[in-house]
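Hello K.,

You asked for the raw outputs rather than the summary table, so here they are, unedited. I folded two proteins back to back in the same session to keep the settings identical. This is the first:
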Amino acid sequence: MTNVLIIGNGGREHSLARKLNQSSRVDKIFVMPGNAGTKEIATNVEMDILNFEEVAAFAKRNKIEMTFVGPERPLVQGIVDFFNKKSLAIFGPNKRAAQLEGSKVYAKKVMKDCKIPTAEFATFTESKKAYNYIRDCDFPLVIKAEGLAAGKGVIVTNNINEAQNAVKRIMDDKEFGNAGDKIVIEEYLEGEEASIMVFSDGRTYYPMVSAQDHKQIGEGDKGPNTGGMGAYAPTPLIENEILRKVKGKILNPLFNYLKENKITFKGILFVGLMVKKGEPKVLEFNVRFGDPEAQVVLPLLKNDLLTVANKVVKGRLDEIKLQWKKEKALAVILASGGYPVKYQKGKQINGINKFENLSNPFIIQAGTKYENNKILTAGGRVLAVVATGNSYQEVYDLCYENIEKIDFEDLYYRRDIGHRIKGVKLIKNE
C-alpha cells in the first residue's frame, strides 16, 4: 500500500484525490492544502506549497511514495528538480520543461521553431512599443501577460482603445504582477476550442480523451475569460482525422524538439487548441492537468492512476496501454456572483450532503473551506456538479437536474455547458 501527496487546493486536486481514492494500491492520501471536499476523502495539510524544503520534509516524514503536483506555479519554480535531488518520486515536468507554461514568449518561440500551427504574434517588454504596434493591427486582437496569471492574463480586445487599455492593465498597472513584465500580442483565432491532455514519460506519449472547456463567463460564450465554467469529454470535434493532425503537426514536432534540446518532459502536457475547417492550431501549452478538464477526463480513465504515474516517472510508459470508458462526462461549475472580477467569500454552502448517497452525479469542490462545522465559499469557482453516462444528453440532464440541490448566496452558473454538441437540448430552450 502506498501513501500519496497531492499539492493544490482546487477542483483539479479534488478530482485527483477522488481518482486515487478508488485505487486499491493507495493507502493514505494527503492534500496540501486541500479544500472542504478533499477533507472528506484525504488528510488536508496546511503548508506553504512553495516552500519546497518543508514540503519535501513532509513527504519523507510521511513515507510519501508519489507526489502529484496540481497547479502550475510549483512546477514552474522547480519543485520537481528539488524532489529529484532528494530522491523523492514526483509526478510532473521539471523546471526547464515547465517553461512551456511559465513563459508564453518561450512557448511561442518553440512553436515557431517547430513550425507548429499557432496564431501570428509579437512580443514586447515596453508598453510604448506595444501601443504603437497595436495601431497597425486588425481586430479582434489577443493580449497576453507573459507569465503566470492564474488563467486570467488573456484579454480579447475588439478595438484600439480596448487593446491599449489591456496593455496598460498588464504592463503599466501591473494587474497581474511580474507576469506582465512582458506581453504577447497575437492574432485572434476563430473556430471552436478543444483541449487534449497527454501523458509523457520523456520517451513515449499517450493522448487522453479530448475535452472542451467553456471559458467565458456568459452563456453563448460571451463576456470575459474565466478559469473555466464547465467542460465535457470527449468532444466530437476531435475526430480521428483531426487527432492525426494534432499528433503529426503538433505533438511529434514538439516532443522531438524537447528531446533534441535534452529537455525530458515527464508528466502532463495540456494542449489548448482552436479548430477551424478541420485544421487545429495551438492556443497554449500547459504542463499539468487542466481545470475543469480533469473533472471530466479522469472519471473516464479505466487505468489505475498511480500505476500510470509510476510508469511516467520511471520512463516506462510504453509498458502499459491506456484504457477509456465508452462514456461521456460533463461538469458544470457553480461560481460566486461577480466572478471573475469581484466576488465575496465566506458564504455558507448548503446541499452538498444531498449528494452523499449518489454515485452519479457527484460533487467536486474547488473554492471551498471547512470552518465551524460549515462548508463555506473560498474562491470564485466554488464547486462542480459532474455526471457520467452513455450519452451527452444524459450527462447534461443529470447535471442540471441536480444543480438545484446546491445553494449559496449569489450562486451563478452557465446553463449551456455542452451547447456546441449537436442534438443536445438545453434546459433554457424548453
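The second followed immediately with the same parameters:
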Amino acid sequence: MNSKIKELWGDLGITTINSARKAFGGWIPFKIRGYIDVDLEKLIELIEQGLFHDEICEKLNINHGILYRRLKSLGIKDLTEVRFLFGVMDVYQERLYKRHLEYALRGIESYQFVFIPKNELKNLIEEGLDEYKIAELYNTTNVTIRARIREYWDLTFYEAQLLFRIFQRINKTYFDDLINKILFFEEIERLFFIKLISDGHSPTTISVLFEFKDYSAISQRIAKSLEMTFNEAKLEYYYKPKIIEFIKIGVRTSIELSRNLKETRVTINSVIKKIWNEEYDDLKDLNYADNSPRQFINLFQFLIRLYKIYPSIDKKLLNDCLYKNFTPKGIDSIFSRYYI
C-alpha cells in the first residue's frame, strides 16, 4: 500500500497511509474514530444473545477496534472474558456450532470454516501435537487451529500448551490447586513463574520446563508477567522469603545466613542491602562511613528485631506500624518501651 502511495503522490511528499490521510482531509476523522460512543446497554444485550464479533459491530455500526477499546475502558480484556462474566458462553458456543454446521451444509470448505470439537482439540494439545500436526488431521491450516483456540479459550497456541499440558507436567498438584481457584490464564502463569523462581530455578531451567529454545525469550515473558526483571524477581521471591525464614528460626549473623543459602557472604550482604534498601538508608549511623561494616550490622540487627523479636512481643502492634509505613527508627521507638 505504501509503495502504491509513493508511486502516485511521492512527488508531493506523500509516502505513507497516514500522510495521505493528512493531505486529503481524513486525518481528524481517523484520529477520533476510537472515541465514538458505544451504547453499553445495547452492547450487553447483544453479548447476552451470543452474537459474534462481526454481528455486534454491524448492529452497533462500529468497527472491531472501537468495540475492543470500549471493552478495555470497562476493564475487560475481550468478548470471551465478558461472555464468561455474564454466563453466556454456552449460548455463544451453541451459535458457533450452528454457524459451522451451516457452512458445512452449504459445502463451504474454506479452512476458516473447519469445525473442530472443543474437547478433541484440547485432547490433541494435551497429547503434545503441534499446531501443524493437528491441522493435518483436519485437512486445514495452522491458522485455523489458532483461530479455534482463540475462539474457545482466548489463548494463543503456546498458551494453550502451557495450560493443558506443560503446567500439569511441571507440577500437577500445584496446577490443580490454581485451577480450582478459577483463575485466568495470566494469573496462573504468573504464579507458576513465582513458584519456580522461589524454588531456585534460573531462566535457563525455566526455559527447559516451558520448552523455550532461547532462554532470553522466557526472561522477556517473566518481565511481562511479573512486571519486573528476573533478577528483581529473584530478590523478591527467592532470597527475601528464605532470609526471613532463616532469621525466624534463629540465624543471627550474615555468615550463618550465607552458609544456609550456600552463597558467599559478600553476595548475601549485597542481596540484603538491595532488598531492604530503604531500611538500610534509614538506619545509617552518621558516625560511620557509608560503606562501614557497622552500617550493615545495624540493618541486619533490625531485621532480627523485625522478624524474630517484635512479632513475639506484639504482632498486632507491629502489623499496625508496618501498615502505617513507620520507618525502622519509628518502629524501634514504638517498641523501645518494652526494653525500659
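Residues 27-35 have pLDDT under 50 and may be disordered.

Happy to rerun anything if the numbers look odd on your end.

Regards,
P.
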